[in-house]
Amino acid sequence: MTQTQAQTTGTTPQTPEAQGLTIAEVRLTPILVADPPLLNTQGVHQPYTPRLIIEVVTEGGTTGIGETYGDTKYLDLARPLAEKLPGHSVTDLNGLFTLADEVAVDASRVENSVDVGGLRGVQTADKLRLSIVSGFEVACLDAWGKAAGLPVHALLGGKVRDRVEYSAYLFYRWAEHPDGVACEPDDWDAAVDPAGVVAQAERFARDYGFTSFKLKGGVFEPDQEIAAIRALAERFPGQPMRLDPNGAWSVPTSLHVAEELRDVLEYLEDPTSGTPGMAEVAGSAGVPLATNMCVTTFGEIREAFTKGAVQVVLSDHHYWGGLRNTRELAAICRTFGVGLSMHSNTHLGISLAAMTHVAATVPNLDYACDSHYPWQTEDVITERLTFRDGRLDVPDAPGLGVELDRERLAVLHQRWLDDDGTMRDRDDAAAMRVADPDWVTPAIPRW
Ligand SMILES: O=C([O-])C(=O)C[C@H](O)[C@@H](O)C(=O)[O-]
Ligand SMILES: [Mg+2]
């Protein structure tokens, strides 16, 4: 609105400064969150996993919250970025990226080309930065929304659905962490065979109403995992199934699994590692391939899409750089006729709320989203989000619609302070060595 228009209509343009939206303070709180002994191809989850909680406080007194990875390499980037934010507006989301570009990434953090700890594809300086920016972006959107009285989805252009569907994220798991390991036990049974996986799925279906099922594979011989999916398909006929070995199979093994499960799989997720191998599998698998490993950055899209290597991208606002970047990814997928689903790592309610807000705004979110949330017995929000019929209601309260529980935050931060460093960086292979001292991260392809 121009000055003249403002005078005619009798309103005064309000700058973000005048509205108190300038950032006065940023608080970073690393925490350790209880995690069950979930198995994947690299090992087993540690009993505690690091997360970072970000609070952005405006001059107007509004606090916005965000959540992202909390390993040391992320904290090392979050701290200098946090120092740069005071004086900037929570509405200046593009400016956040410029500020983040000024934060140098320690080259030793990116020398391995693959993020082995997180099974999340390449590890570049940009991707590390984006993983941090996303947490700040969510905190800024939350503060902005709270100050304006608008839900985050409205700041993203508005929701196109009122509920977001999630899938059951099944894991092979032990009942407990190894003897003598400090942990927070849960009440889930072991699941190391088809019967255990089916029992786990039944509980997910009963308690949360999920109707599609993803099994984290790459743990046992492929034929055992084929048997588990077959058992699931028999127990839940006609319901969508997914299997994700995190790139652990060769091309021939991937094609064998595809052949055996073609009739029941909604998609096969990262059967083999790398875009060329995925393209080879995609060429004759007869089942769509999904990925959160070979397309995890904008730079990887062109090769994968032009080679037809993936039919579904699993977005993840954490490493794609936030909720707005997730929408950009969605637009690119839409343009290329590639499907979109959502990836998840161990996360708490702040991130689940953020995932739900952005998912609500994306027209082409074609599949139920992944979420680890049901595995998390701890949280830092005052009221846990509840799945009904496998779905979450999209919050319409201002901001993300969740509130920080400061007491719980303090307890989980104290656990991080008390840790001797063992748990502060996720390392599934090291956690596995506690049970099996000879364990080394398996070379890929494992089968
Ligand atoms: O879909 C995926 O590849 C993942 O969720 C990666 C995660 O790290 C998962 O494998 C896990 O938590 O063990
Ligand atoms: Mg995956």
Verbal overview:
Residues 194-288 form the Mandelate racemase/muconate lactonizing enzyme C-terminal domain. Substrate binds at residues 45, 124, 169, 214, 244-246, 292, 343-345, 372, 426. GO terms for molecular function: glucarate dehydratase activity; metal ion binding. The chain has helices at 3-9, 72-84, 93-101, 125-148, 152-155, 194-208, 222-235, 251-261, 275-285, 301-306, 317-320, 323-336, 349-361, 406-418, 428-435; strands spanning 23-34, 39-40, 43-44, 48-58, 63-69, 163-165, 168-171, 213-216, 241-244, 265-269, 289-291, 312-315, 339-342, 391-393. With 447 residues, the protein is an alpha/beta fold. It folds into two domains: 23-152 and 408-418, Enolase-like, domain 1 (2-Layer Sandwich); 157-400, Enolase-like C-terminal domain (TIM Barrel, Alpha-Beta Barrel). The protein is globular. The structure holds 2,3-dihydroxy-5-OXO-hexanedioate (GLR) and magnesium ion (MG). The site of 2,3-dihydroxy-5-OXO-hexanedioate has 12 residues, from loops.
